[in-house]
Amino acid sequence: MPDLPSELIAQRYCCGSLCNPRSPVHRYAMLFFICLMSFGSYFCYDNPAALQDAFLTDLNLSVAQFMNLYAFYSWPNVILSFIGGLFIDRVIGIRWGAILFSSIIFFGQCLFSLGSFLSSVYLMYFARFVFGVGGESLSVAQNAYATAWYPPNELNFVFGLSLSVARIGSTVNMNTMRPLYKAMGSAFHLTGGKRMAATLLVASVTCLFSIGCAISLAFFYRRYVKARLESLLSVETSGESSQEAAAPQEEVIQLKDILHFPPPIWLICIICVAYYVTVFPLISLGLVFFKRKYGLDPAHAAALNSLVFIVSAVASPIVGAAIDFFGYNLTWVTVGIAMAATCHACFAFTAALPSPFLLMLCLGLSYSILASSLWPLVGVVLPQHQRATAYGLVQSVQNLGLGLASFLAGYIVDTKGYMVLEMFFLMCNAFALLATVLLFLWDVKNGRRLNSAHTRTKATPVKPEEEAEVGGGGGGSGGGEDEEEEDAPPTSSDTAPLVS
Fold first, then answer.
1. Cα 132 to the chain's mean position, in Å?
2. Which InterPro entries does the annotation name (predicted)?
């Protein structure tokens, strides 16, 4: 798509390329809002973990009740992530979807604070449920924004940077909530549930920041779509009247379309679940594991357990940029899974060497490689009007797998020990490798579009009418003249979809 000449940019936009909606400078400036849109969600998600002892003492919670604060977040999203993605694709669009779900996380966090104030565990459960509805669906909207705004050869860096910011949010939470909790007590002389409620309410400010990012993105994305359509209409040579050229040709996903998702989507689901269940359950149970196996004190065990997230926060954008430069996403996916399998094999069958710090560093790098190379493939395989639904589907399957794996991992440790747990992780890694091999075979049969440095850019195109629909809502909820002028037919430069 041709960019406007530089002299026209100077005339139309006060800040030149920075204000030109279709310039690379403007596009990468939008990464600030895309990445930070979910900062509040990741920051507030682990508020209970950062204040675990305070939750148990101030609110008189049992350990089981405390763990339910996470269960009420995760289990509903086995279904609700998928529904949220479908809702974005069919009804409300990316722009309003991001605003809605960022508002829901703010409302859920405020309810959580109110539940603490009233010392009502059931209100706190409901609040975490509401927060989960917004948090997971906001991640779906974030992924949909990324695949709508950035070409496939830039997506790996975008997803890597998003992952990095997410982990920074978790890290900031772990390091600020304790001092904030102490400050609430000393400054305002609060105790018990009131002290906890005030702390959680202050944390909700990060959710307001997410709402601000979502509103800003809605404005800038609408400008981008309008500018692109203006460029399309200016180079229209097919002979149709301008009225015909501007006529909307919306595509909205149907429920039956999900049954016809191509094999790569289902294989991506399998790889995602089979890999992630080897990382997060290990971190959940890592403190005791590192103390028992390596004789570490609690402080060193905790530091070791946090290395995966610290490494991923630093490495993810770098790895993503490297994948964008070299291509070959499936090869990177294979490397990430193989690295994780090697780490788990060492945890299972070696004693002091290699160092557990080195193994956790490698596991963190493996996590960065897989997340940066796997998630963008959804945007390569499917057209824009189906992507939010697909991301919701993958996250729903991931939540289901993590929920089941957490229960199974706890049972294995209680009855069989950590050696058998590591064998379970190795089995999951092998399953992920098998799914990757099948994805390789599909890719070879279908033109090597997922694993080539040159043909990855030939992804399923984002048609102009899809951009307009996804930005304003496929069901007309955005409505009005603004939405109608964002629609336009595909140009002759649009290629055929990747899959039939």
1. 13
2. MFS, MFS_dom, MFS_trans_sf, MFSD1
CA angle 468–391–135, rounded 5-degree value: 95
What is the pTM assigned to this prediction?
0.69
Question: 10 Å Cβ neighbour count for 297?
Answer: 9
Tell me, yes or no, whether 489 lies in a domain.
Answer: no
Alpha-carbon distance of 38 to 34, in angstroms, equals 8
Domain membership of residue 188 (yes or no) is yes
The three-state DSSP-derived secondary structure of 295-331 is CCCHHHHHHHHCHHHHHHHHHHHHHHHHHHHHCCHHH
| Gyration radius from the chain CA atoms | 23
- 7 and 72 share one domain: yes
SS3 category, 21: coil
Which of 207-221, 295-309, 462-476 is the most confident on average? Answer: 207-221
Total domain count, the chain: 2
* First-residue to last-residue Cα distance in the chain: 24
For residue 335, the domain's CATH number is 1.20.1250.20
123 has pLDDT over 90: yes
Q: What is the pLDDT of residues 443-458, one digit of tens each?
A: 888 888 777 775 444 4
Q: Which of 274-278, 324-328, 388-392, 457-461 has the lowest mean pLDDT?
A: 457-461
Question: 81 and 15 in one domain?
Answer: yes
Could you tell me if residue 108 is inside a domain? yes
- Average of per-residue pLDDT values in the chain: 78
Give the whole-angstrom CA distance, residue 336 versus residue 322: 14
Encode pLDDT of 372-386 as tens digits. Answer: 888 888 877 877 777
Tokens of 9: 């940019």
Q: Has residue 488 been placed in a domain?
A: no
Tokens of 308: 């995966």
Q: Which of 500, 499, 490 is nearest to 462 (CA)?
A: 490
Task: Print the domain residue range for 279.
Answer: 257-460
